[in-house]
Amino acid sequence: MVGCSLIAVCLVSITNRSGPDGAVGRIVALSGEVHVQGQGIPAVAAVRGDYLHEGDIVETGSEGNVRLLMRDKSVLALPSKSRLEIAAYQVHAEARQRQARLKVLAGRLWALVSQALHPDARYEVTSGTAVAGVRGTELVFDVADSGQAAVTVISGVVDLAAAGAHETLGERERGRIGGTGAIAIGSTSASGIETLRDDVRDEQALDEAKAEQRLAALRKKKGANEAAVKGPAIEPEQGARDAPGTGSATFEDAPVDAGDVNGDSGSPTADL
Hints:
With 272 residues, this protein is an alpha+beta fold.
């Protein structure tokens, strides 16, 4: 009887991975070794198109890289040797409200977070030593093997808290949390930001023309004219580079590469 119950749980898990019911995100691109572990379920190899739920842990291997498109149109990326827990992700699109909490268990997370207009909206990226409150921005969150964390703000504003200390970080600022919980603030250059982006996402930048083509195709598909389509949830200059996080698409609309799941055809992209 116990064996049958375990099989049933596993079958439910597999079914949930292939359908959008209750999902908060989707794997839209990956390369190398990537695994997803659900609550109470052993880790399984991920494939493009898998849906993600609250409580899932996404992990990349030594050559792994994965791109996630979340229900609020935020885009997340994990390079190799990284682990991310989707602790909470509640989105209410009509009210532009959400309550999201991501925990970086190891490695590095790149996040392009869409804006939420509701005053009570909350988006947190955490580790064992730090909490970053994100206000619709682009950032990189690092967790070293020692457990110490660092947050680099590429654009926007992040409220960083650790062991009672609190700092507000702006564009190109980096906050490092020491062993005592103190926050040391530094800065990085424009070239340093570009290097960081490339290291984390391991892909070529999307050009503006391709981004506009994607949005035009979506408008035509939905039968909407230009004036009826809402603007991007992020600033235009970010949208030109990161089209997957903009426009009227939802993560259910994202086409998924049907080719080799862990192919070596190049860097992952998330075309909407």
